[in-house]
Amino acid sequence: MTLTALVTGGGTGIGRAIASRLVSDGFDVVITGRRPDVLAATAAAVGAGHVAFDAADPGAVRAALGHLPATVDVLVNNAGANMARQGLAAPAGDLAALKKLWLADYESNVIPTVLVTEALLPRLAGNGRVISISSIAGVRGSGSYGPAKAAILPWNVELAGKLAGRGTANVVAPGMTAETEFFNNTLTEERREFLIKEIPSGRPGTPADVAAAVSYLASPGAAHVTGQVLHVNGGGHNGR
């Protein structure tokens, strides 16, 4: 019997790589995101289905349920963004802008993960897997983005307890990852070289590195792994 996987934020970068890897692993994959054109192109390229909706909007999530799989074996919560990298600024001393930025990062990273998971829990198959993408920023800090990604970790521990006996919940936390939209053309070459020097492995990660970790957690071999954080950063969370 073919298993089904759903990947939020599956149109580009890490999400696309995860979707492609899970298709290769034999899953029927559905990707979601807010950009219908990007989703459609990726779905055609990797051999997945696609449903466009805003995972941070409760109404949109509810409306999308009729188009999502009736049974989900693997849910990958990848949707998220660093809002400062997306152009949302908080000038020094502007407390209203600072509040807006912090709330925007929380809404962009934590809320989609929680809403989609809660909506699909009744559809999670026996021995189902929930895999959520956090970040190295969740353990090393990074303005408002780091705390938002950090919030996923204790939530995941609680979810693992809730799923005990019927499935697992784990987090994958990438470090600096090339070939994604994360930096949104804001990364200077000087900053890039500095970040790479902090990585003991000597290179940035790739979306395929993260997808391989997700593939493991979705596999039968990870059936006894739950409530954990798998760091995929070349040792970068410790620095040199």
Describe the structure.
- With 240 residues, the protein is an alpha/beta fold.
- The protein has one domain: NAD(P)-binding Rossmann-like Domain (Rossmann fold), CATH 3.40.50.
- Helices cover 41% and strands 18% of the residues.
- The protein has a seven-stranded parallel sheet, with helices on both faces.
- It is globular, with a radius of gyration of 17 Å.
- The mean pLDDT is 90.
What descriptive keywords fit this protein?
alpha/beta, Rossmann fold, 240 residues
How many domain modules?
Answer: 1
| H/I helix tally | 8
In the CATH scheme, the class would be Alpha Beta
By CATH, the superfamily comes out as NAD(P)-binding Rossmann-like Domain
CATH-derived topology: Rossmann fold
Secondary structure class reads alpha/beta
Provide the gyration radius in Å: 17 Å
Element-level helix/strand string: EHEHEHEHEHHEHHE
The tally of beta strands, per DSSP, is: 7
Distance between the termini: 46 Å
User: Which stretches are low in confidence, meaning pLDDT under 50 for 5 or more residues running?
Assistant: none
**What average pLDDT do the residues reach?**
90
Task: Describe the structure in brief.
The protein is an alpha/beta fold and 240 residues long. It has eight helices and seven strands, in the order E-H-E-H-E-H-E-H-E-H-H-E-H-H-E. Strand 1, helix 1 (13-24) and strand 2 form a beta-alpha-beta unit.
